[in-house]
Amino acid sequence: MTRGRPQRDEPTCVLAVRVPVALRDELDRYLDALETRVGLKASRNAIIRHALRLFLDTQPQAGRPTPPQRVREP
Predict the structure, then answer these.
(1) Residue 47 belongs to what domain range?
(2) In whole angstroms, what is the distance from residue 19 CA to residue 64 CA?
(3) What digits encode the pLDDT tens for the residues 15-62?
(4) Dihedral sign (CA 35, 39, 41, 45)
(5) How many CA atoms lie within 13 A of 70 on its CB side?
């Protein structure tokens, strides 16, 4: 019998993040409402991963390597 978490295609790591209790409670209320309205059971971790991915995808390319701009010659 295999034990532990299932292996994924992409390596993962653990990030410990402190959040205010009020924010955690708000997240839990959102998750409860999501399950009640939509029938989707999601975890805190899944929602946090999704929110982080959306945030990073909507940000400009800051911090990401970009090719140098070409200078046009007259």
Answers:
(1) 21-58
(2) 27
(3) 899 999 999 999 999 999 999 998 888 899 989 999 999 998 888 766
(4) negative
(5) 3
